[in-house]
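ingest -> validate -> predict -> emit
validate: passed (alphabet ok, no gaps, 201 aa)
predict: started
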Amino acid sequence: MASRINTRRRRRDRARILLAAILLLSATVASMALSGAIYTDIETVDNNTFSVGTLDISASPATALFTATGLAPGDSVTAPLTISNDGSLDLRYALESTTTEDILAAQLDLTVKSNVTTCDNTNWDADGSVLYNGILGSTAVEALFGDKTQGADAGDRTLAPTAGEVLCFHVELPLTAPDTSQGLTTTATFTFYAEQTANNP
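emit:
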């Protein structure tokens, strides 16, 4: 009888020890979880660089394309002008002319052409495409080709980065010029307006 009682006590004691071990283990795991004992990792992606493009139109020569003095009816002058895209963005451009007076400027005929093989008084009209043909300009501004209004417009010219084109300018005082143009002087300013083509329909 005593033997059976002792056996039962030993079993109860073992069960209590096992339960205590399980409770201790559970407490330890819970404590580790609460203390942040988990795996972590981090990865950095650096060296992200952003740069902005440039819009830069240039003309050569940049001044005094013409210096014509003592013109008589029937005389003409011709000169090439190189337009370049010195920026890193595609561009489109338009051209306007402004003069210092209106009487002589309205008598002088201006023709602007592209793709002319030889831009001189003898050969300017042999080939190429006419971009403008009309008066030299006016004090009120004369639009020669294209439109400086933002966005693509009829007549706008486009240039890729590092590209350029030669425009041939021909100015003539016709034989029909009236006497009122005698002794007059006018100075013309050609203004090129450029804008980006990207995201600018």
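The CA atoms of residues 120 and 143 lie 24 Å apart.
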